[in-house]
């Protein structure tokens, strides 16, 4: 079945259980997980092949080949091969280490033990050796490393609970059941391996990991092409120059030299010169550029890994940069797409407040009389007297405890209801502690709260519920279970207490329940309503609580009708629903509960700070609309100050279109009249329009759209409307979206807004979104690993996103841009002197510098200072980066490195090369040394130029470095020192005596650098090339200071205590009553409970009970299957499995 | 670093300055006063240096006599390569109005001679010139071997094109007596060139040391006959040869030929009066439309007579000052209405 979905070729799978020979015929994949790329033998060829597939490496190989042709070889081969070999070796070492780690982790997974039935015996087998068709015995809490078909289990009715934390991060248990035919077969859980290794659902779904590149990468590639074009132009100019020179001067000069062998056609000579110059000038884009960029990114990644401020001690999880090539993109994010559960929220529900009989419990007043959540100062209620109390539960209002002690009947009834009306299953662990298995965390919170206040839910059977009421065990008879569903929005139980009274306990959404109340409740209702609004205003999830006393006769009649309805064949569901309606009326209101869907720490601050940084946050969640909106309010993404919140919840394409149109009209109508109706613009026009409109829109808007509508809205003709609307809203919340839709939304923004996107999530349902965004962030430290594995960065708490973007991202971007500017400048200055020299050496492709200098310049003399800057530089410190989120905006607007900046760097480089060449030229012309000897020999000229160049670029990097650490000092001074020591070594007598042909510059450094004249030249060159830059920068900072300039000035001016920004989030809102009723579980569990299917056999009471006969034994499972949409695919009713 | 016990020590990043990016550092943030005073100081320095350089350049003297055209008949003779063995001398009289005080250096200067061509520059064999292997002519193409295959010594295009004019300066003491101005040929090369880079092959007899090699095609005599009077100036160690082999960076260059020996009449330098150069005209510059001249020059503290550096320093100094003044103007004008950071940063 689902193999046909995954693989087109494989229509069906034939598997014989426990028959390896038969199954081997089909050559199904084995269960070994392979994520590694190489082994020892294949490493070298594959790795080299991969490396030379990179354009840069291939280009340098091409250059190397060019250099080996003697006619055009203007540089010796080692100038290219030394850096190339260095680079290839470094990359190979890095690839090898990476692969080692992959081998390790593969081995770890592959070597996990499983029990497989082989030759009629259970044998221990490594998971990697499990074959398709094997029967596997699993025990509680074991890992499963393949897709399995459940055959039978030790639980009644072949049920088994699985945790899918490694898949989707959800820690609640999911029910799976074996096929009826197989469930009878055996004890313990046995399973049949169905898909193995690379065929597993997980591996199939993991998708191809796209190779992500940053926008700087793309820009760099464009610029390299530009530069290459520029080089070709220079080459052509020089080649033409050479042709002309050869014709006019060269011929005669050659014949004077009797250089007959060298005689050649001037055009051909020009052609050769072209290639020679291409070789010489290629140093503008040296291979070290690519390496340095990688090294810098690696350094930044390590800084992320090392950051203690992104270390979560709660889970002992440090932040991790899993991809080391995207760092500077973190400084350019415009859109953040966030998952809700587990990302914004902790997926922990806590019972915060309640309103019982018109009185609020749980309010905490601090000294100022403000109702705040400064809970830490207050003494929590001491539950230690209660042996059953859950220790993690905290409540700060002592009044409730007192009310219980005083025996307030309403309070007792309230707590009793909480302990009785739920779908929780209890279990005792080995230590005798009660453990609750909860379907929805909301219920868990309520039952736990009741437990702590002395109404402990102990156990249940299909007919009874046993609770401990303030120390005494009371068993209630469960007469009926009126299950929850999305329409009813409530659930009820009907119980008979030991005194024989029959009671109906109901909890549900306030809007629904309030309609069912007895008229006598009016006063209480008003009061409770107010309380509910207050709760909702604080972002709490609320439930209304009510009960009804039933008399015996009435109930019996009703129950009879229910039985009839259940046996009815037609309109069964409708009849049952009607009966439920019938009995759930004239309820007596008890009060309301407020459960907090606990936000992760610092979420509000982070959200506020990111929006100040002009980052738009979209929440994409699988949750219900109410929940999602609630969280939106709780995180301050939605506020009551907003001009409008558009809710798109249409079910058909037409509805959605209409709603979008209305929303847009609304939006524009408030600002200016807009073209009526729905017009599909050309894409480009649309974007322009959007950006224009965006500026004119004032006020805050928000958009809430659900999954159904999104599916329609993502269709091509409405897509632009959606995008336009969404991009003008401050906040966008998409609820009930599927994983695929999450990715589609990300793709939409990526494609049409040209913006850099970041997706953050924690579960497997976020994987697609994480993969499709420019940057994917996984919340780690949870049990689920899928999101983290797919992500580029991972950390344990949403709040670290702020530091990741505003500090690390900003710095990375800032440093990378500075690095690139300097690097291009440096190499233009370095290389273009050859061009100028061409005009004086008959365009003969003679280099200005010594070959060794050319080889070493980029990798030894100037690499380290710029690397140190690229790794360590800071314009403002991290605290200021966090305090002033506006500093982030230059990155979004791409201001620090773009084509314009590049041209400026290039002009700067060209200017420097001019100064570098023409000042020595002028000074050497007709000059003589102090001892009268001629000064203007080629070698002295080369040394002078090289020395000036090294000094000028070192001074320049010193100016560019704004954060001088020890490392910078060592590298900058060290580079200059290295230059001089290598220079003197290479010009020494000793090395000349050994290699006279390789080091012909003997004595040059000694001779030239003792001449005052040469030092005067170097000094003048330095002054002339640096002063204009200083002047320009000074004027720029003086006239148009950026925020960062101002902050830097201030940082320097006053090292006083940093400004205290009390950006205490305003969580309190006045009005806006929202029905955020707290039900998150699926319907169907009521039936599960009343049928007793999910209870241990020993707990089962001897047959017959009121409910027992209601349904035949399998109908509830069918119902469950029918209603559980997302589990259908894995409930494999695979017909081809032959047993 | 102090670790609290509840932290998992293995995963908590270390609290070191490097890892937390808290390395102590000074932030380079130049203040307006700093930059402006730097500019003014640089300006003062450059202007001062410029003036000093110009004045000292002015104080030195230089005479250049271009004899390409003056010795027109010789030039014509040399245009035909077949006349290579015909002697041609030419005398160029000139008048020195002022005494040239101090050390006087005599240079020959060539125009339009490309010693910096890529192929030309490579065409030499350093190991041959080092005397270790006279027959190592591998890198000397196209002048590595003669037609019959004998290796050339010294091989290569540079050596082959050796400047071979001889220039003798004579002083007209009075109307009838001409005396030759005493000139030194020593000390015109770099020490490292003379003693490290160039060596004659070791042998008792120089001519036998060069046995098995032949002279470069344009040379009239083999290398071991360059100066038969002085063994320290013969063969590869010949000063003129070494000077020539140190190739020039630009097509116009002057190379040191001789320096004045300050004896007798010339203790002070070259006295004013009438002189003449007696040139034996061998080097055929007109064939490549080049020119040659002879230069007499005195030196300053910083070397040769060149105005360029002085001018460049002066201009740079002036520009720096100009920039400094305009920057100061801009800065002062803005000072009044500058925003404080807080005005712009609204949080």
UniProtKB/TrEMBL annotation, chain A:
Enzyme kind, highest EC tier: translocase
The protein's required cofactors: Mg(2+)
Signal peptide (UniProt feature, chain positions): none
Compositional bias per record (Basic residues), positions renumbered to this chain: 1051-1072
Localization (cell): Membrane
The enzyme's E.C. designation: 7.6.2.1
Region (Disordered) location: 1051-1078
Family annotation (Gene3D superfamilies): Calcium-transporting ATPase, cytoplasmic domain N (3.40.1110.10), Calcium-transporting ATPase, cytoplasmic transduction domain A (2.70.150.10), HAD superfamily/HAD-like (3.40.50.1000)
CDD domains: P-type_ATPase_APLT_Dnf-like
Keyword terms: ATP-binding, Magnesium, Membrane, Metal-binding, Nucleotide-binding, Translocase, Transmembrane, Transmembrane helix
Catalyzed reaction equations: ATP + H2O + phospholipidSide 1 = ADP + phosphate + phospholipidSide 2
Transmembrane annotation, as ranges: 75-93, 223-245, 265-291, 819-840, 852-872, 902-921, 941-959, 971-994, 1014-1035
Family: Belongs to the cation transport ATPase (P-type) (TC 3.A.3) family. Type IV subfamily.
Name of the protein: Phospholipid-transporting ATPase
Organism: Equus przewalskii (Przewalski's horse)
Automatic annotation (TrEMBL), chain B:
Record-annotated membrane-spanning stretches: 30-55, 307-330
Pfam assignment, any one: CDC50
Domain of life: Eukaryota
Chief place where the protein resides: membrane
Subcellular location: Membrane
Keywords: Glycoprotein, Membrane, Transmembrane, Transmembrane helix
Family assignment from sequence similarity: Belongs to the CDC50/LEM3 family.
Protein's recorded name: Cell cycle control protein
Native source organism of the sequence: Equus przewalskii (Przewalski's horse)
Gene: LOC103563538
């Amino acid at each position: 079945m689902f193999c046909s979905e995954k693989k087109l070729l494989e229509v069906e799978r034939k598997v014989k259980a426990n028959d390896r020979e038969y199954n081997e015929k089909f050559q199904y994949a084995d269960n070994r997980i392979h994520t590694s790329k190489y082994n020892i033998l294949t490493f070298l060829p594959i790795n080299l092949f991969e490396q030379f597939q990179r354009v840069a490496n291939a280009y340098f190989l091409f250059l190397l080949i060019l250099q080996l042709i003697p006619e055009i070889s203007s540089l010796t081969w080692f100038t290219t091969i030394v850096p190339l070999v260095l680079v290839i070796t470094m990359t190979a070492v890095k690839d090898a280490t990476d692969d080692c780690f992959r081998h390790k982790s593969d081995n770890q997974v592959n070597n996990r033990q499983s029990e497989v039935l082989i030759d009629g015996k259970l044998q221990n087998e490594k998971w990697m050796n499990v074959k398709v068709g094997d029967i596997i015995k699993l025990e509680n809490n074991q890992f499963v490393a393949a897709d399995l078909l459940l055959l039978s289990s030790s639980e009644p009715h072949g049920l088994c609970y699985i945790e899918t934390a490694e898949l989707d991060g959800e820690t609640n248990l999911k029910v799976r059941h074996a096929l009826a035919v197989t469930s009878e077969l055996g004890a313990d859980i046995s399973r049949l391996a169905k898909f193995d290794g690379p065929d597993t659902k997980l591996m199939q779904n993991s998708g191809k990991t796209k190779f992500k590149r940053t926008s700087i990468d793309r820009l760099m590639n464009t610029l390299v092409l530009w530069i290459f074009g520029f080089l070709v132009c220079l080459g052509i100019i020089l080649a033409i120059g050479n042709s002309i020179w050869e014709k006019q001067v060269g011929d005669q000069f050659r014949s004077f030299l009797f250089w007959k062998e060298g005689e050649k056609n001037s055009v051909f000579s020009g052609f050769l010169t072209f290639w020679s110059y291409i070789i010489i000038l290629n140093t503008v884009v040296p291979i070290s550029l690519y390496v340095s960029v990688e090294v810098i990114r690696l350094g930044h990644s390590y800084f992320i890994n090392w950051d203690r401020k992104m270390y979560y001690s709660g889970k002992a999880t440090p932040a991790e940069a899993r991809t080391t090539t995207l760092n500077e993109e973190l400084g350019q994010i415009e859109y953040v797409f966030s998952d809700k559960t587990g990302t914004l929220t902790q997926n922990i529900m806590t019972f915060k407040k309640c309103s019982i009989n018109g009185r609020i419990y749980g309010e905490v007043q601090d000294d100022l009389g403000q109702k705040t959540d400064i809970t830490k100062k207050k003494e929590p209620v001491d539950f230690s007297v209660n042996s059953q109390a859950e220790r993690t539960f905290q409540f700060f209002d002592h009044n409730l405890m007192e009310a219980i002690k005083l025996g307030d009947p309403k309070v007792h009834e309230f707590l009793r209801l909480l302990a009785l009306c739920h779908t929780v299953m209890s279990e005792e662990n080995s230590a005798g502690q009660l453990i609750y298995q909860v379907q929805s965390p909301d219920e868990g919170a309520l039952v736990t709260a009741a437990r702590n206040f002395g109404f402990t839910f102990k156990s249940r059977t299909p007919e009874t519920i046993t609770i401990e009421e303030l120390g005494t065990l009371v068993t209630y008879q469960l007469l009926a279970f009126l299950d929850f569903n999305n329409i009813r929005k409530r659930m009820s139980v009907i119980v008979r207490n030991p005194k024989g009274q029959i009671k109906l306990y109901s909890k549900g959404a306030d809007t629904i329940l309030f309609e069912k109340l007895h008229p006598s409740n009016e006063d209480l209702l008003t009061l409770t309503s107010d309380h509910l609004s207050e709760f909702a205003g604080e972002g709490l999830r609320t439930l209304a609580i009510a009960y009804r006393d039933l008399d015996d006769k009435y109930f019996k009649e009703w129950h009879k009708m229910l039985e009839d309805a259940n046996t009815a064949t037609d309109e069964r569901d409708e009849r049952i629903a009607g009966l439920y309606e019938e009995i759930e009326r004239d309820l007596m209101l008890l009060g309301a509960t407020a459960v907090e869907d606990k936000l992760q720490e610092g979420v509000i601050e982070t959200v506020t700070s990111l929006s100040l940084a002009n980052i738009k946050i979209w929440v994409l969640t699988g949750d219900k609309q109410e929940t999602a909106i609630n969280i939106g309010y709780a995180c301050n993404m939605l506020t009551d100050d907003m001009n409008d919140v558009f809710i798109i919840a249409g079910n058909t394409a037409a509805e959605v279109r209409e709603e979008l149109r209305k929303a847009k009209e609304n939006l524009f109508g408030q600002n200016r009249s807009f073209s009526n109706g729905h017009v599909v613009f050309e894409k480009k026009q649309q974007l322009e329009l959007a950006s224009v409109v965006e500026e004119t829109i004032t006020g805050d808007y928000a958009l809430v759209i659900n999954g159904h509508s999104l599916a329609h809205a993502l269709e091509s003709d409405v897509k632009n409307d959606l995008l336009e609307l969404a991009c003008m809203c401050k906040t966008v919340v998409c609820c009930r979206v599927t994983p695929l839709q999450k990715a589609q939304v990300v793709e939409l923004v990526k494609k049409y807004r040209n913006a850099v996107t970041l997706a953050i999530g924690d579960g497997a349902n976020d994987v697609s979104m994480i993969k499709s965004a420019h940057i994917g962030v996984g919340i780690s430290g949870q049990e689920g690993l899928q999101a983290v594995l797919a992500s580029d960065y991972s950390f344990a708490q949403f709040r670290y996103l702020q530091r990741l973007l505003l500090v690390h991202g900003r710095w990375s971007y800032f440093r990378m841009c500075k690095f690139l500017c300097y690097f291009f400048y440096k190499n233009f200055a370095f290389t273009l002197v050859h061009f100028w020299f061409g005009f004086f050496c008959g365009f003969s492709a003679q280099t200005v510098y010594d070959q060794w200098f050319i080889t070493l310049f980029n990798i030894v003399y100037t690499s380290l200072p710029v690397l140190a800057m690229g790794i360590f530089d800071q314009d403002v410190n991290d605290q200021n980066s966090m305090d002033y989120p506006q500093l982030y905006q230059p990155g979004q607007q791409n201001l620090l490195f773009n084509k314009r900046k590049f041209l400026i760097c290039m002009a700067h480089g060209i200017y420097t090369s001019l100064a570098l060449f023409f000042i020595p030229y002028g000074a050497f012309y007709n000059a003589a040394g102090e001892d009268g000897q001629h000064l203007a020999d080629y070698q002295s000229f080369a040394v002078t130029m090289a020395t000036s160049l090294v000094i000028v670029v070192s001074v320049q990097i010193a100016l560019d470095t704004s954060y001088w650490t020890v490392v910078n000092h060592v590298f900058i001074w060290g580079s200059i020192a290295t230059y001089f020591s290598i220079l003197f070594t290479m010009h020494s007598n000793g090395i000349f005596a050994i290699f006279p042909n390789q080091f012909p510059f003997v004595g040059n450094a000694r001779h030239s650098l003792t001449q005052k004249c040469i030092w005067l030249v170097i000094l003048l060159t330095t002054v002339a090339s640096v002063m204009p830059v200083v002047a320009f920068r000074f004027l720029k900072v003086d006239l148009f200071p950026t925020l960062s300039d101002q902050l830097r000035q201030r940082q320097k001016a006053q090292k006083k205590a940093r400004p205290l920004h009390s950006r205490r989030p305003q969580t309190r809102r006045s009005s806006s009553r929202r029905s955020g009723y707290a039900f998150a579980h699926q319907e169907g569990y009521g039936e599960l409970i009343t049928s007793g299917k999910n209870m241990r056999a020993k707990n089962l009471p001897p047959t017959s009970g009121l409910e027992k006969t209601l349904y035949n034994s399998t109908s509830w499972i069918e119902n469950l299957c029918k209603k559980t949409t997302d589990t259908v695919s894995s409930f494999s009713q695979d017909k081809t499995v032959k047993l | 670093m102090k670790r609290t016990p509840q932290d998992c020590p293995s995963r908590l990043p270390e609290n070191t300055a490097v890892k937390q990016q808290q390395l102590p550092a000074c932030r380079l943030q130049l203040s307006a006063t700093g930059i402006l005073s730097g500019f003014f100081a640089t300006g003062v320095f450059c202007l001062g240096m410029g003036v000093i350089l110009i004045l000292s350049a002015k104080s030195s003297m230089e005479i250049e006599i271009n004899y390409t055209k003056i010795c027109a008949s010789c030039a014509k003779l040399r245009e035909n390569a077949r006349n290579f063995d015909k002697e041609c001398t030419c005398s160029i009289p000139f008048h020195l109005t002022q005494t040239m005080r101090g050390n006087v250096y005599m240079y020959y200067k060539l125009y339009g001679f490309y010693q910096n061509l890529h192929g030309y520059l490579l065409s030499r064999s350093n190991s041959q010139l080092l005397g270790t292997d006279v027959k190592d002519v591998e890198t000397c193409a196209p002048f590595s071997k003669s037609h019959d295959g004998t290796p050339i010594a010294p091989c290569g295009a540079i050596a082959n094109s050796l400047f071979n004019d001889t220039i003798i300066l004579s002083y007209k003491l009075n109307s009838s007596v001409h005396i030759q101005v005493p000139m030194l040929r020593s000390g015109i090369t770099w020490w490292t060139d003379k003693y490290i880079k160039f060596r004659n092959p070791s042998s008792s007899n120089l001519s036998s040391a060069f046995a098995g090699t032949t002279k470069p095609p344009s040379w009239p005599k083999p290398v071991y006959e360059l100066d038969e009077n002085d063994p320290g100036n013969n063969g590869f160690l010949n000063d003129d040869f070494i000077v020539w082999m140190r190739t020039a960076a630009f097509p116009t260059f002057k190379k040191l030929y001789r320096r004045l020996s300050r004896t007798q009449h010339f203790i002070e330098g070259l006295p004013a009066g009438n002189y003449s150069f007696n040139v034996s005209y061998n080097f055929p510059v007109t064939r490549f439309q080049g020119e040659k001249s002879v230069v007499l020059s005195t030196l300053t503290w910083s070397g040769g007579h060149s105005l360029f550096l002085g001018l460049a320093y002066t201009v740079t100094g002036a520009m720096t000052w100009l920039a400094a003044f305009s920057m100061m103007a801009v800065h002062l004008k803005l000072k009044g209405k500058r925003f404080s950071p807080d005005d712009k940063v609204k949080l």
